[in-house]
Design a protein that fits this description.
mainly beta; 8-stranded antiparallel sheet
Length: 277
């Protein structure tokens, strides 16, 4: 969408990042356009990079995140201008870590708290170039027990971007209305990368293109159930291998997502804010 400047500023008051607003579709805009403009109470952003030696996530600065994004763009420009260079891709076994390059593989987590006639939390994730391990991940919003989520207000989206040997080609988006798992301390969406709309390889205009980047956000309103202070968290858990036949998910005190019944996963450190009413 091409939004007017005043509409962009309106969405920024919800805590949406510049990158998220640039990806807004008519579905997103229709959900928010008639809402009361909120006051942005606080926002926090965390950045992480995949360690090439052990595959673990390590904290990085905003500057490092942006510089790695620029290096990635240079990389694609190089192969675009040299047809002899080809990206090496292969299908993933859903129960094993796939081989391949984690070029500039990074995660950005954002959480924002707003207030108008209601309080609301926006959590946002941006996973860049995580094409080698596409299984089932968990994304959501956590909070302290002082808050109660209005589950009917949950809305958000999940977008997968697809690339060919020369860069970005197309993307697919799914929308959230409600949550996969609900707790007294937050809620979680299940991101199934084996689903028909987010599969790793997609035949588009007669050629196969490869999933590279994933991003999404979730919005919900809440009420105070007790006290005058609380905290909000953007949560993300990355599965390095597939699920077993049975698994369970829970969210103790909103600060993390815990999983049993899967062989390997990474709990990404939260983006978090504390606030009072």
């Amino acid at each position: 969408m091409k939004l007017k400047k005043k509409d962009i500023l309106f969405l920024a008051q919800f805590g949406f990042t510049k990158e998220r607003i640039e990806h807004f579709t008519l579905n997103d805009w229709d959900h928010f356009k008639n809402m009361e403009a909120p006051e942005l109470i606080d926002v926090n952003v965390s950045y992480f990079k995949v360690d090439e030696n052990n595959g673990e996530l390590i904290p990085i600065t905003k500057y490092e995140f942006e510089e790695n994004k620029k290096q990635r763009e240079v990389y694609y420009d190089k192969i675009k201008n040299n047809p002899k260079i080809k990206l090496i891709t292969s299908l993933c076994d859903p129960d094993n870590t796939c081989n391949g390059s984690n070029l500039s593989s990074m995660v950005k987590l954002t959480v924002a708290v707003t207030h108008s006639s209601k309080y609301a939390i926006v959590s946002d994730f941006d996973w860049i170039n995580d094409s080698n391990e596409r299984h089932v991940d968990l994304f959501g919003t956590g909070h302290k027990e002082a808050l109660t989520v209005d589950y009917e207000s949950i809305f958000g989206s999940w977008t997968t971007e697809y690339y060919d040997n020369y860069g970005y080609v197309a993307e697919r988006t799914s929308y959230f209305n409600g949550a996969t798992y609900k707790f007294s301390t937050g809620y979680v969406h299940k991101l199934d990368r084996n689903s028909p709309t987010h599969q790793e390889f997609w035949q588009y205009n007669g050629k196969w293109i490869h999933a590279q980047d994933d991003s999404g956000y979730t919005y919900a309103e809440f009420v105070w159930s007790s006290g005058t202070s609380s905290s909000a968290y953007a949560n993300y858990t990355h599965m390095k291998t597939g699920w077993s036949s049975s698994f369970s998910v829970w969210m103790p005190l909103g600060a993390s997502i815990s999983v049993s019944g899967t062989t390997s996963y990474i709990q990404i450190p939260n983006a978090a804010v504390s606030f009072t009413r």
